[in-house]
């Protein structure tokens, strides 16, 4: 079993849930199952978003698979509890069977296909007939498949899967990626405009988030207690005013 590290921050969870709602609505309209996430540049946080989105879908009761398609990195760079020797590289190279490369996780309904060992020719593997067959086959076994891909501005890996997946989303990191990177990524994804789901802005601090999402912490326990106390004070004051008038 592989341990995936999710995020317990309530603001982050609410933001991920908003993405989940949009993806689920997109599926209801188009029957989309496979979603590809790629960054606008290095350190955009694509893997973090992919993991948390996959966890959210699984916790909602959907049979979900997270596929790490970054064959240029070993598992030690990922937010997982331990490295697994068998992954996508081993399956595509013929070293291992498909069933040996799919791993259980610490979340119910969520399985994980890791990237495996570092690969010298990732483009050739992702562009292979075996990968195409895998992508098509996974839609028969899962409700959602999340593909975590390298930055579209860094390598061409993500563009290979554009024709095969149902939806594509870009991830941009505030203070990590430049406007030029965002522009270039958006231009490269124009070839699959019908599948473009939008841009996920990552690494937003609380102050910035508050400006864009008003009352983002409306349901926090601290604020709920504060509003309840104020309501009690107003009620007590009204009762006091009525008693004064009666006298």
Question: What do you see in this structure?
Answer:
The structure is a single chain. The protein is 45% helix and 15% strand. By secondary structure, it is α/β, with parallel strands linked by helices. It has two domains: 207 residues, Rossmann fold, CATH 3.40.50; 30 residues. Helix 8 links the parallel strand 6 and strand 7. Helix 1 packs across helix 2. The chain is globular.
Structure described in brief:
By secondary structure, this protein is of the alpha/beta class. It has ten helices and seven strands.
CATH class of the largest domain: Alpha Beta
CATH level-4 homologous superfamily of the largest domain = P-loop containing nucleotide triphosphate hydrolases
Structural class assignment? alpha/beta
Strand content: 5-15%
CATH architect. name of the largest domain: 3-Layer(aba) Sandwich
What is the molecular shape?
globular
Number of strands: 7
Question: What is the N-to-C succession of helices and strands?
Answer: HEHEHHEEHHEHEHEHH
The value of Rg in angstroms is: 22 Å
CATH topology of the largest domain: Rossmann fold
What is the CA–CA distance across the termini? 73 Å
Question: Mind sketching the topology for me?
Answer:
Layout: H1 10-30, E1 34-39, H2 46-59, E2 64-68, H3 88-92, H4 98-101, E3 103-104, E4 110-113, H5 122-126, H6 129-141, E5 144-148, H7 157-161, E6 167-173, H8 179-188, E7 196-202, H9 206-212, H10 221-246
Parallel strand pairs: 1-5, 1-6, 2-4, 2-5, 6-7
Antiparallel strand pairs: 3-4
Helix pairs in contact: 1-2
Characteristics:
seven-stranded mixed sheet, 2 domains, Rossmann fold, 247 residues, 15% strand, alpha/beta
């Amino acid at each position: 079993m592989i341990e995936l590290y999710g995020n317990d921050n309530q603001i982050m969870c609410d933001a991920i849930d908003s993405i989940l709602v949009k993806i689920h609505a997109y599926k209801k309209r188009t029957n989309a199952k496979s979603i590809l996430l790629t960054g606008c540049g290095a350190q955009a946080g694509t893997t973090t978003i992919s993991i948390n989105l996959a966890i959210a879908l699984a916790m909602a009761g959907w049979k979900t698979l997270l596929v790490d398609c970054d064959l240029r990195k070993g598992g030690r760079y990922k937010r997982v509890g331990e490295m697994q020797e068998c992954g996508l590289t081993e399956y595509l190279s013929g070293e291992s069977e498909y069933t040996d490369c799919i791993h259980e996780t610490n979340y119910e309904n969520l399985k994980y296909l890791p990237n495996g060992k570092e690969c010298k020719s990732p483009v050739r593997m992702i562009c292979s007939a075996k990968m195409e067959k895998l992508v098509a086959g996974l839609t028969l076994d899962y409700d959602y498949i999340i593909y975590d891909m390298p930055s579209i501005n860094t390598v061409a890996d993500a563009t290979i899967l554009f024709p095969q997946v149902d939806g594509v989303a870009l991830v941009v990191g505030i203070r990590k990626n430049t406007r030029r990177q965002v522009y270039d990524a958006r231009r490269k994804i124009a070839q699959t405009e019908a599948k473009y789901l939008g841009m996920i802005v990552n690494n937003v601090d609380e102050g910035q988030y508050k400006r864009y999402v008003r009352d983002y912490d409306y349901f926090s326990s601290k604020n709920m207690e504060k509003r309840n106390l104020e309501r009690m004070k107003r009620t007590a004051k009204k009762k006091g005013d009525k008693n004064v008038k009666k006298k």
